[in-house]
Amino acid sequence: MIEIKGTKTSPQENDPHERYIHKSMDKNSKTPAYVVVLLAAVGLYLKSIFPSASKTQEDPPADTPPEQDETELATSQTTTGQVAGTPTGENTEKVGSSTSLAVLDLPRPLSFTLSESPAFQFMDPSPKLEWFSPKTIIFQPVAANDNPNVSGKISASGGSGIGGGGGGSISTPGSSGPDGGSDTETGSGPGAGNGGSQQANRAPRLSGPVYLMDIASCATLAIGLSDLLRNAVDPDNDPLTVQNLQVSTGTLKPLENGWLFETDTFELGPVIVSYAVSDGQFAVEQFAYFWVVKEAPIIGTDDADMLLGTKCANEIDGAGGDDIIDAGAGNDVITGGSGNDHIVAGDGDDVVYGGTGHDIIFAGLGDDYVSGGAGNDRIFGEGGSDALFGDDGHDLIFGGDGNDRLFGGTGNDTLYGGAHNDILFGEAGHDVLHGDSGDDRIDGDAGNDDIHGGDGNDIVMDGFGNDTVAAGDGNDILVAASDGDDDHYDGGEGFDRLDYSSATDMVTINIMSGMASGAEIGSDSFSNFEHFRTGGGDDHFIVGRNNGVVMTGGDGSDVFEFSAPESTPSTLMTIAFEITDFQHGDRLRISKHDLFKEVLDEVEDRFEKVYGEEVDDDGIRLRYHDERSEELGHTVIEADLNKDGVWETTIEIAELQVLVTVEGV
Fold this sequence. Notes:
With 665 residues, this protein is mostly beta strands.
């Protein structure tokens, strides 16, 4: 086994507490000596920087012993081997010396003695600036901020003394003052030097564009002069002004200490303000930016709230409760929420959702969209071309001015189109529809509707159900539904048309009795119509001599029957009948005689062979001839309906028209 033992022994510690005793308590500090050395070094350094001036008078020489020859002194020292005051009996040879010669020890001072150094002499602190400043400098200045260069010579002469007022001057060829002298301005004021000239004007400096506070749409923004000069400084401390202020959109109105910006549209986006910053001599172009942003929404609570909008485009949500909402101007989006709300949308193209509850909504001016939602709502479109929806419930809707669209929705609704050309849809339920003035389009849709066209040339569709239609004044068109229900139609004043063109089966229209019947249309009653139109079936028109009407049979083999009057009129009357689409397969029936189109195309003798000139006692007499002109031809059929020997009835077929003239009998 190998054992390792240390060879160094630690000294025996007599008393363990001695290690905590401060050993240098009685030892003198060397800090004062270091301080004296440091001060001496600083003094020598200052003396080297500021050399003392030559003395005007020499100090008297101090008493000095006569000089001794250096060779003699060295010889004497070597011979004696010691200096006075040196302790005797000690070996003076230094151990480790490289020579065998003895080295003499210098005498040790018994105490510190002060050095007789010369006194400090402080110099005038004012530097001689003429040593450093150039006498004349000639250069071409470089203008700042793209300003044009200043031509001429720029001279700078230093003034005397620190803070002297003398500066540079700008001189241009041929420039002179009113007295023919130089235009150079001499510096003045406190500390002005002699012969100095004023420094050349410098253009304003810009640290970047200005960003102003964003505003809501159609709001206003106050812009102060300090806002536009925010990033501009003048190196000469000249006062700055703003010139040529313009905006990319909106308008600016001057104020006492700035400008007022107003948006003239409801559009969102950036606005750029351009202007020039001037110090009176130079101007630099600057820009300021801000945005027109959307406003924060206005939200109510579940209680009955009163919410007010602004003239900006607001988003308002009434939430729950019976709220009162006044949106103000602007294109607003309004939600009433639950509860019986009272909503005034105000001006602008607004979107209004009434929500649940029995709401009252005033759309205001503008082209508005209003949805009443569930409940028995009252909606007023007021001005503008509005789209108004009653939705669920028994709603009351007024279109007001403008070309409005009204939709009743489910429930028994009442709609008033108001002025101008409106479109009314009753939709489901037993509705009451009023077109009012204007050329309106009214569709009752499902339900037993009561429809009033009002003034104007209206188009009315009754829809399904047992409907009652009064077309009103104007030249109206009433389109009867093929619903099989019994309806009543009144054309009112004007030249009105009753249209059964949707029917494909046979329709019989008895104009004399005012009844129309058929498998598809049911049994309808009508009055005050001047034009009748049927569909694709084999239809039958029955007219009398007291009814002057226009008939359009449509497709199918139609019969146009003219009946003899039941009594002889006492006065002379002329009644016109018109058939607009007499074609192959149609028949013109006068009493018991049927006239086909093929017969009318034959010559007159062919007509006589079919009908003959002689008739039975119970028949009528007919005769036929052609008449032609340069532009068109027509056929004339004459008949004696009451068998009195007078051809009182004349039927004229010209192209697609038949003119029947009843002569006085």
